[in-house]
Amino acid sequence: xxxxxxxxxxxxxxxxFFAGNAALATDYYFHPKLGNDxxxxxxxxxxxxxxxxxxxxxxxxxxxxLLAEGQTFNGSLEIIGFKGEKNEPLVISSYSEQNNSxxxxxxIDAKGYLxxxxxxxxxxxRVQNLEITAEGYGKMSPEGQMRVGVLILxxxxxxxxxxxxxxxxxxxxxxxxxxxxxxxxxxxSANGTQKYGWGIRVMNQSxxxxxxxxxxxxxHISDLSHTGIKLTGNTDQNIRRITIKGNTVHKTGGPGIQMxxxxxxxxxxxxxxxxGSNDDGRKWGRGSGLWTWSSSMVLIEKNKFMxxxxxxxxxxxxxxxxxxxxxxxxxxxxxxAGGFAEILGNNYNCAYRYNISVNDxxxxxxxxxxxxxxKIFWLSxxxxxxxxxxxxxxxxxxxNTIYVSEEIVAKIAIDNRSKGVLIANNIFHIPGKTELVAGxxxxxxxxxxxxxxxxxFKNNLFVKNGLWPENALIQSEDGIVGDAQFRVPGGLNVExxxxxxxxxxxxxxxxxxxxxxxxxxxxxxQLSKDILGNPIMENPGIGAIQVFPQMAEKKND
Length: 557
Known about the structure:
Layout: H1 3-23, E1 27-30, E2 64-68, E3 72-74, E4 77-80, E5 90-95, E6 106-109, E7 115-120, E8 123-128, E9 130-135, E10 146-154, E11 160-166, E12 169-174, E13 196-204, E14 211-217, E15 220-224, E16 229-232, E17 239-245, E18 248-252, E19 257-260, E20 262-268, E21 271-273, E22 290-293, E23 296-301, E24 304-306, E25 317-319, E26 324-329, E27 332-334, E28 339-343, E29 348-353, E30 356-358, E31 375-379, E32 393-398, E33 401-403, E34 410-414, E35 419-424, E36 427-429, E37 434-436, E38 453-458, E39 461-462, E40 480-481, H2 549-556
Parallel strand pairs: 1-2, 2-5, 3-6, 4-7, 5-8, 6-9, 7-10, 8-11, 9-12, 10-13, 11-14, 12-15, 13-16, 14-17, 15-18, 16-19, 17-20, 18-21, 19-22, 20-23, 21-24, 22-25, 23-26, 24-27, 26-29, 27-30, 28-31, 29-32, 30-33, 31-34, 32-35, 33-36, 34-37, 35-38, 36-39, 39-40
Signal peptide: 1-25
InterPro entries: Beta_helix, PbH1, Pectin_lyas_fold, Pectin_lyase_fold/virulence
Organism: Algoriphagus ornithinivorans
């Protein structure tokens, strides 16, 4: 046998080996009413009954755990120490008793349990098409410190890789029983000190292993006492390559989405509304739509952040301290109490670009328990505790459209430790008053005079003269005064902010690197499309929407 035929023979044997292994994959069926844990579980007529039965299965790559559609399972589904294959993940899903696609998901009621679904030290798993709820502890003892819809956990010396959560419905997750009313002091703590319920948590407690390649997709998370989606790594950023896409996160008592100790994260096409909800006494009552801490290389685009609530923080999306290369682009931000753009200390090369902000930062310090002012623009050197303030360094803020109605006082805060600030090609449509305020992140920013280094503040459109506070440390150069004439001022759609006065928004400037900055931003400084997907010409224009010359000509005709 020649070499070529030998290779073909070996490849054929390998194919048969892997095909044979795939054929051995097993479906396990579960039904809470018609099942029995003494059954084989290998068919619908021989379904298991309880989720606890999963622990005794010898699961292999490609196996499926299938829960009966529309049925409620009490308890917790736990996968511990499992390793599938990249192309043959373990699948956990619903099944139809009529042999077609499930019309409604199976439901896991984890009342009194620590988690609805636990994936611990396991890899290559897909969880899809399930509903999970976990409200309080009922007649069970209130064990643990938190209750979670889905917990992905690494500890000991085993990591987690290749887990996908898709099309889940997670709601009503509370640690406490109804009737709890938290004190006003609890909401003043940094992240809450009491026991809460969370939607999806990804936690790495291992000193040596990674959590990587996680997808959270197309899921609806609502009405729980703390954060909707939370990633918790360490300062080595041991959670990496994460995608959070296509989800809706509504009425969370804390932030909608929060990440710490992560690297290489993509957050896109999510709708986050009413974070920091206080409509239940068990909820924390404070939270930005999204915020990052000690994170690197995170792209946050094409999301909606609306109606964030709380006496502190509670911006649409903000960048907390110890981050680098965080980019917010193509997002729609509206009516968030804490504000629009917020970059805290020890942050490097972060940006807000091609976003639209509508009536953000309306909160007033001292009213309704608020201990921070709301702000449309905030650069703070705060980096925690008693540390000396530092930065942020190389903050880019360009081609954003900011609309604030006349009855709201638009507030701005700029820490004098900031180094490297670019503000260019933005529309500041603020017909009312503006004020410079202290940043008040647990203690106010240092307001003593200090000239900021490396500032590029040019070519922004202001709806009136004197809009930028005269006592701000940085002042506009080459500002333009004019009304962009939005299609529907105050509207809640991106298209509402297409300028009708095209002539005043065409003369943008090419965004340069700040002095001494050799990196710029992830995906570069120059984008090819605006927030609506229109191509950006050589002249980038002003604001988040590129207006073409022919638009102005048509208007003049």
